[in-house]
Amino acid sequence: MIGYARVSTGDQPPLPQSKALQSVGCVEIFEEHASGGNRARPVLAGAGRRNTDDRLPAIIAAIKGADPNITLHAICDRLESMRERTPRRRTRWQPSSAKMLLERAKRLGLL
């Protein structure tokens, strides 16, 4: 989950907001100092954007989250049945590719 903490002045610390966001499960928190009179929120504007390379790890994380005991071969079968292509745009998945993307999903905090 992604969180956003904003404080109005530079002397206000966003730490209490950030801690509250962490306590409810946010793994990525964006902090911004911006007054209420200024509507520009550049940090907020870019907060929800993920790299397109994160799409496959997110799919694999969802598969693993739905069935924590699923094997790498079963993940490959599921991806092929969904007609998802590998990172190299191939149609056949190898367990090593699924494992690499599963590890990336863990680093991204998706698992």
Automatic annotation (TrEMBL):
Q: Which Gene3D superfamilies does this one have? A: Resolvase, N-terminal catalytic domain
State if 4Fe-4S is listed as a keyword: no
User: What GO molecular function terms would the record report?
Assistant: DNA binding; DNA strand exchange activity
Q: Which domain of life is it from?
A: Bacteria
Which Pfam families has this protein been placed in?
Resolvase
What InterPro entries is this protein classified in? Recombinase_CS (IPR006118), Resolv_N (IPR006119), Resolvase-like_N_sf (IPR036162)
The GO annotation for biological process reads: DNA integration
Name the keywords, alphabetized. Answer: DNA integration, DNA recombination, DNA-binding
This protein's record includes keyword DNA-binding: yes
Question: Which residues catalyse the reaction?
Answer: S8
Q: Which residues form the Resolvase/invertase-type recombinase catalytic domain?
A: 1-45
Q: What is this protein called?
A: Resolvase, N terminal domain
